[in-house]
Structure formats: C-alpha cells, structure tokens
Amino acid sequence: MADQPSARGRLAELLDVPAKTAAAGYLDVLGDAPQAGPSTGLAQRAMRTTLLPQVYERYWRPAFGRLFTGPFGPGMAGEVRLATELLALRPGGTVLDVACGTGRFTRAFAAAVGEPGLAIGLDGAPSMLTRAVAETREESVAYLRADAVEPPFPPSTVDAICCFAALHMFAEPERALDSFARILRPGGRVVLLTSARHDWWPARIADTAGGILSGQRMFDRGEIAAALRARGFRIVAERFAGVTQIVAGELIHFVGARG
C-alpha cells in the first residue's frame, strides 16, 4: 500500500464534518455506527461482510455485472472506461466515486485526474475500504467512510461523481440524487449505473419480483434521466443493457431538492 497522507489531508479539508483516520488508512466520519442509513435487503448486507471484499473485484462484481447487463453489456473493464469517458475527467479535477467498493473505479479515475487532482472513494463498509486502501498505489487517491446518500461535502465541491451499481440499493435514492446535484460544481458531470425494468409486462413483473427479493429498487427506463433533468442536468448519455441503465448528465444549474 502506498501512503497517501497528502491526498487524505486534501480530502479532510474538503469535508464539512470532522473525520478520523482509521487504522487501515481511510478517513471515517461515521465512527461506531455499523452503517449509514437502514439496510435495504440481502444485496446491501452482503456488501458489508468481511469475505466479499476478498473476491469482489475479481469474481463477484464481474459475474453479477454480466448477469444483469446481459451478453452485450460492457463488462467491468468496459464500465470503467465508459465511466471515465462520460465524466470527461481532466488533470487537476476532483472526482467522487460513491459506493466505491474495493476502489477499481477510483484508481482509474486517479489516473485520469493525475497527481494535481484528487480521486475520492466513498463507501460505508469498513471491510471494502480496508481492501481498497491495500490495493491502491496511486498518490492522488483518498478513501472516505461516510453516508453515500448524503456525502459530507459543502455545495459545489467536486467536478465529477460516479455511482455504479449502488443507487438501487439506497434506502433514499432520490435524496442521493439531490446530494449529488448539490455538491457538484456547475458544469460538473455525474454518471450512474443502476437498475432498469423492462417495458414489456411479463419481463417487468419478473424484474420487480427479483428486486423485491434482493432488496433492490427496480427503476423504470428513462426514470433516472428524468430525475436528473428535474435537478438541473442535461443528459449527455443514456444506455440500456439487460436490466441496467447507464445515465450521465452535466449540471447546468442546481435547482434544489426534489422532495
């Protein structure tokens, strides 16, 4: 593991709440709280186990990604490339990777923003963040244990936000979108990969049932794009594969919470 005290210090300066440095090397604003917000079901609880981080990046995430995106989906490496491109990352930028897991996307974003920039990986699971820190060599990366629904940053703090394979597991996804719009700078971009129910009814019923059993919300196709537009974004990409959607938007003006 590379030591990234400079990146952690820069991250600490951006936060609007105090943070402590965990023994593993990430900043923590949750303290003794076992998690941020209520659990939404089996899928989310699995993310907080100690075993899953050991197999997440190499086996679990690619396998389940392929299951949900289907044979024509981009695959995990393709997702990383696509997210980086859609965020239009530039050297010196600040990018936030929400629900970063073991940091696969965060590390790629660090390469895009370079040492002048800062790539922040945010997750609520200590086991995931411990693995992420251990896997990271890039100097411009810092990890944060915090609430993914309401990241602890002042308004207009970051240039880009990625949230892949997580929004559908949040108890309050609409509030998360409000938060993303609030902390993005004008002209900043967000890219999301989340669930997408099929439009035709037999498959739609099956998609909904699967979501209920696993504790994952099944969004309609086009629902996320509409939610971003309502918060002041223009949509720059909208793609569907299997039961997933990738949506990217550029913040034109923050119009406030959509409660």
Describe the structure in brief.
It comes from Amycolatopsis rhabdoformis. The protein is of the alpha/beta class. Helices cover about 40% and strands about 20% of the residues.
Give, in spatial order, the strands making up the sheet with the most strands. 1-2-5-4-3-6-7-9-8
Question: What is the CATH homologous superfamily assignment?
Answer: Vaccinia Virus protein VP39
Please trace the helix and strand order, writing H or E for each element: HEEHHHEHEHEEHEHHEE
Strand content range = 15-25%
Number of helices: 9
**Radius of gyration computed on alpha carbons:** 17 Å
Distance between the termini: 42 Å
Domain tally? 1
Number of strands: 9
Overall geometry comes to: globular
Would you tell me the structural class of the helices and strands? alpha/beta
Low-confidence stretches: none
Please summarize the sheet with the most strands. 9 strands, mixed
Assigned CATH architecture = 3-Layer(aba) Sandwich
CATH class: Alpha Beta
- Percent helix, as a range, is 25-40%
Q: What does the model show?
A:
Residues 96-192 form the Methyltransferase type domain. InterPro entries: Methyltransf_11, SAM-dependent_MTases_sf. The protein is globular and about 45 Å long. Helix 5 (104-113) links the parallel strand 3 (94-98) and strand 4 (118-123). Helix 4 packs parallel to helix 5. It is 38% helix and 22% strand. With 259 residues, it is α/β, with parallel strands linked by helices. The longest helix is centred in the first third of the chain and has 18 residues, at 52-69. The chain has helices spanning 5-14, 42-46, 52-69, 75-86, 104-113, 126-135, 173-183, 201-214, 223-230; strands at residues 20-21, 27-28, 94-98, 118-123, 141-145, 158-164, 184-195, 233-241, 244-251. The chain has a nine-stranded mixed β-sheet, sandwiched between helices. The chain has a single domain (5-28, 38-251), classed as 3-Layer(aba) Sandwich (Rossmann fold).
